[in-house]
Amino acid sequence: MGGDFCKIAKSLLSESHVAPEDVECVGASALGTDCVPVDHSCTPLRPAILYGIDARATEEARWLTEYYGESEVNRLFGHKINSGDTATKILWIKNNEPEVYDRTYKFLTGSSFITAKLTGQYVIDQALAKGSFRPLYNADGTVNEAQCEVFCRPNQLAESRVSTDIVGTVTKAASIATGLAQGTPVVTGTGDSTSEAISAGLVEAGTVFFQYGSSMFYYYCTDKFIDAYTSPSGNGSLKGGKDFTIPGTFCLGDGTNAAGTLTRWVRDTFYKSELLTEATTGENAYTVMSEEASEVPVGADGLIMLPYIYGERSPLQDSEALGMIFGLTGGHDRRHINRAALESVAYSTYQHMRLFSEIGLEPERVITAGGGTKNITWMQIVCDMLGKPLQIPEDFQCSAYGDAMIAAIGSGQLAGFSALRRVLPTGRVLVPNSENHQYYAQHYPIFRDLYLNNRSAMHTLSRENHK
User: Fold this and answer.
1) Which of 68, 223, 256, 305 has an alpha carbon 20 to 30 Å from 411's alpha carbon atom?
2) For residues 1 and 174, what is the distance between their CA atoms, to the nearest angstrom?
């Protein structure tokens, strides 16, 4: 089974001195909108096709748009088809790797793969199935056999279950591989972003969660279903809502293609010496970057960056979008590029908030998580950009902590998500600088229009470079 999961399970049992028999329940999460084809023995047939950062299915998305028509695409997918849709990844395998497709018993995600290896049961979080796998599942979570015809056989899809449902127990083989006791209950589990959001406090409507990892992922938990929305003012578009993992709630959810990957590009390009000396000095290059970014004034002295170095999912849904550095002068140095990169991701976050506002959604709480929260300069930029208090959880509130909470609910150790909300810590709360917020709000149209005014040229260059 998943080697990392096995190592982690054995390490946790060893370091905690908890007897395997005392583990009440197991929950796991991994990438959500990826695609892992497996055979009858749950052996992967190829490396997983990852989330929206893997845009190999662009041609499939174009073909499907022509096949269905834009109106039907919006009804079935809830948005323009993009690289984040799992169904297009399945179609890509069908078209380009027919030998893999023919041998595929189930198309899984990372989390459903782990659960299957633990229990032998092929299940997927119902919310994830109805969201990321559209249109392959119906509104009630059953497989949409009529829509499967284009993509796969209906029996190639996992059964959808609620994330907290106990779906099986640890098998003998899984017990040997992980050190967990045979017969330990296992819940369905969910995607890593969902688990991290829950761990940080996304357990009730009116809360928006932004996760800053390799990409920026968001969830906005609502008490009603929200249709897909395209802004008339050019702010972009939002995918249609879907059922959320929290019973009785819905959510808007999507992600960008770059956040931490953009800061890594800055590090690898402009901070090579700091990267080389990390091992000897012990000072992390990202720490130097955070300090240098804090030395640069708001707005990076007129330098603006577009973060689309891998195309873009939300809110552009444009795999051919390109990054840009605008306003460069001889007075700028690496510190300005560093800060402009952080601000570009914050501008994208703010762009989503503008879209939320246009459809009448004003969050009562803004929470965040992910590796990016370690860069306090970045998080203060985000806080200033949004003009709202920003809650940062404790270090231990991560996807693994969320997995444990989901397992606690599934096993009855917690009465439900409302009970979880009462026991979660508050963490750290940042307060926005009103002057900085005013600056960002005034300059946001420049950020937005740089894409709108250069979109056609971006597409030309993108197609030339991918022939």
Assistant:
1) 223
2) 8
